[in-house]
Give the backbone structure.
Amino acid sequence: MSFNIKPKYDKKINKSDLVKLFWRSIPYEHSWNYERMGNVGFTWAIMPILKKLYPQKDKFIHALKRNLELYNMTPYIVTLPLGISVAMEEANASNEDFDETSISAVKLALMGPLSGIGDSFFWGTLRVLATGIGTTLALKGSILGPILFFLVFNVPHYIMRYYGTFLGYSLGSNVINNVENSGLMDKITKYASMIGMMVVGAMTQEMVSVNFITKIGVGKSASTVQSLLDGIFPGIATLALFGVTYWMLKKKLNPLLIMFIILVVSIAAAYFKILGA
């Protein structure tokens, strides 16, 4: 992997830092949570590099908080955005004119497309292939079944995870250097932010389900409230729930309390046959 990049900012990250980043990326999903998903794993992975880049305590804490935003990524390729992020953090640490909002914007913009690729290859293809090979041998009583399943799935995974760290860092460094020379940072930040918000919005619609099963009318002409709402504005119930949740967050309610309120209301609505699966 080449490190012959000559950016305008000071180079502080070396190969050993990136190797450490690779190892710390492995437990990325061990702290997955319903509030911000993989944010803790992502931040923990880059924490030593952030500490190196921001020796001042206040700047280090600020960088940690900035990276604790919602993030969700297929774990097998998470080192690619990790590498890009640390390259951008390196530029931000030594350049006062660097727009640090671009770090979050690029992270969010990459979240959807990269996860789609990672899930399709590792979950949809490689896992099925490994399962087919392992199961065939296991059914014949061969110990090679579970061993081959483990190897066929994990060898490509760790190769991708390792080299993805260096590739992400190299891509990030090159992009930052070219962008600074061309003056395109403002446009990249703007469009990356737009894509990131689209990704988060799509995740909300895809992962949140609200279904009103109460019927209006009698006999065969009866329709559920949900079908009527979908006919007027598809997804409006999910949008309304998002709005209420956002309002509660603006009121400084604890996210755990918000989830508890949603849970209690959902159970009560299901009991009185207002909501259903």
Q: What stands out?
A: The first strand starts at residue 215 and ends at 216.
